[in-house]
Design goal:
- There is one protein chain.
- The chain is built from six helices and six strands.
- It has 172 residues and is an alpha/beta fold.
- It has one domain: Alpha/Beta hydrolase fold, catalytic domain (Rossmann fold, 3-Layer(aba) Sandwich), CATH 3.40.50.
- It is elongated.
């Protein structure tokens, strides 16, 4: 698998860890999948999945760890993650090995919520950069997810509200 380390800096000067895994010959002739990752673990734990996608589907893959994940600097929050997504899209638009007519989005779990918000944000701007999207194993919103995982929160809503830092209102 060919790859290059992506060098992304946030507007605050924080470094984000990421890789552009590309096909050996004529990578610009292949589809590129931009992968938005889950909450748990680090992007290195997804290498088996990346290898399957790379070999069997013959795609290029862009994967960047949001702030505070893997070796990316900073603290994660909803606004920061969406800012990080803007950097990822800018990278893709400027990478000569990426065919701009063949860019798809893949979001898993938290990454699914990030993908949904990204698509909505781009749509509001009249931008249809991604040719399609796969949303895998995501949730409607963080509040509902907290209710499912921690049923005791339903009985004490003010504690739940104080504990939740993220919203990710994907169902909207």
């Amino acid at each position: 698998m060919q790859y290059k380390e992506m060098k992304l800096l946030t507007k605050e000067g924080l470094k984000l860890q990421g890789w552009f895994m590309h096909q050996h010959v004529d990578p610009e002739s292949f589809t590129t999948v931009v992968f938005f990752h889950e909450n748990a673990g680090n992007i290195g734990l997804r290498l088996d999945w990346f290898e399957l996608m790379y070999k069997h589907l013959k795609v290029n893959i862009v994967c960047v760890a949001y702030r505070g994940y893997s070796k990316s600097e900073g603290e994660p929050n909803e606004d920061h993650i969406l800012d990080d997504v803007d950097l990822i899209i800018d990278y893709c638009k400027n990478e000569k090995m990426i065919n701009q007519d063949k860019v798809f989005l893949f979001g898993r779990s938290l990454g699914g919520a990030v993908a949904i918000h990204t698509l909505r944000k781009l749509e509001k701007k009249g931008c249809h950069y991604f040719k399609g999207a796969v949303i895998e194993n995501t949730f409607t919103n963080i509040s509902s997810m907290a209710d499912a995982i921690f049923p005791m929160f339903k009985a004490i809503p003010r504690i739940k509200k104080a504990m939740l830092r993220l919203r990710w209102e994907s169902e909207q």
